TrEMBL record:
<dbReference type="InterPro" id="IPR000748">
    <property type="entry name" value="PsdUridine_synth_RsuA/RluB/E/F"/>
</dbReference>
<dbReference type="InterPro" id="IPR020094">
    <property type="entry name" value="TruA/RsuA/RluB/E/F_N"/>
</dbReference>
<dbReference type="InterPro" id="IPR018496">
    <property type="entry name" value="PsdUridine_synth_RsuA/RluB_CS"/>
</dbReference>
<dbReference type="InterPro" id="IPR050343">
    <property type="entry name" value="RsuA_PseudoU_synthase"/>
</dbReference>
<dbReference type="InterPro" id="IPR020103">
    <property type="entry name" value="PsdUridine_synth_cat_dom_sf"/>
</dbReference>
<dbReference type="InterPro" id="IPR042092">
    <property type="entry name" value="PsdUridine_s_RsuA/RluB/E/F_cat"/>
</dbReference>
<dbReference type="InterPro" id="IPR036986">
    <property type="entry name" value="S4_RNA-bd_sf"/>
</dbReference>
<dbReference type="Pfam" id="PF01479">
    <property type="entry name" value="S4"/>
</dbReference>
<keyword id="KW-0413">Isomerase</keyword>
<dbReference type="InterPro" id="IPR006145">
    <property type="entry name" value="PsdUridine_synth_RsuA/RluA"/>
</dbReference>
<comment type="similarity">
    <text>Belongs to the pseudouridine synthase RsuA family.</text>
</comment>
<keyword id="KW-0694">RNA-binding</keyword>
<protein>
    <recommendedName>
        <fullName>Pseudouridine synthase</fullName>
        <ecNumber>5.4.99.-</ecNumber>
    </recommendedName>
</protein>
<feature type="domain" description="RNA-binding S4">
    <location>
        <begin position="2"/>
        <end position="65"/>
    </location>
</feature>
<dbReference type="Pfam" id="PF00849">
    <property type="entry name" value="PseudoU_synth_2"/>
</dbReference>
<dbReference type="InterPro" id="IPR002942">
    <property type="entry name" value="S4_RNA-bd"/>
</dbReference>
Amino acid sequence: MERLQKVMAEAGVASRRASEKLIAAGHVAVNGKIVTQQGVKVTKADQVTVDGVPIKHEPLKYYLLNKPRGVISSAHDEKGRRTVVDILKEDGIEERIYPVGRLDYDTTGILLLTNDGDLANKLMHPKFEVQKTYVAKVKGVITNAEMKQLRLGVMVDGRKTKEARVKLLEVADNHQSSRVRLTIHEGRYHQVKRMLKAVNHPVMKLHRETYDSLNLAGLPSGGQWRELRPNEVKKLKKLV
C-alpha cells in the first residue's frame, strides 16, 4: 500500500505537497468516497479520482526549459497568465507536468518540469541542497567586502544564509550597475534577490544558469526546451 498523495504524485497529478492540498480541499475520492484526511493508504486495486476524473499512470517524463521573462512558474494561474507548462503544451506535450520549484515572473533561466512527483519532491527538499547558479545584474558596484559577506552568509528573515560562491563578472561603464555570479545550495523564497538586497545591491535582472549538473547548452533563447537524457535523469536521482 502507498500513501494517497504519493500515488497522486507518481501519476503526474501534482507534487506531493500540492496533492495534499487537493486532498484537504475535498477534490480527491477513493472508490467513490471523498477523502480529506492525510495519510490514507491505497492499493493498485483502488480507484482514485480527482474532481471525478480517474488518475492514470503516465510514462515518467523530464523536461528542461529556458524560462523566459513574464511567464509564471506554475501549472495553472488563476489570473490567466501564461505559465511554463503552457509553453510545453503549446508544443504538443500532453503529460500532466509541473515545474520543480519556481523562478520569479521576471526571472529567466533553467527550470525542470516533470510528472515524476517523487523526484520533484526530493529535489525541492532543503536537506538535499541542490546547487544552483545565478547571474544577477545589480544596482551599483558590488565590492570585495560585500562579496565576502555573501560567501559567509547574510541575514534573511532573521536567519543566516548558507555559504555561497560569488564572483564579480562585469562593471558597467557608468558604474551604475554590475553583474555577479552567485552559486547557492538553498531554495528559500526570493533568496538570491534578498541576499543581494541585504548587501545593498537590489537586483535589476536575474538569470539562473545551472541546476546541479544541468545547464542551458543548446537552449540559447527563452522559451526553448528539451527532454532530459537518461543519464541526466539518473544523475538527478542519484543526487537525492
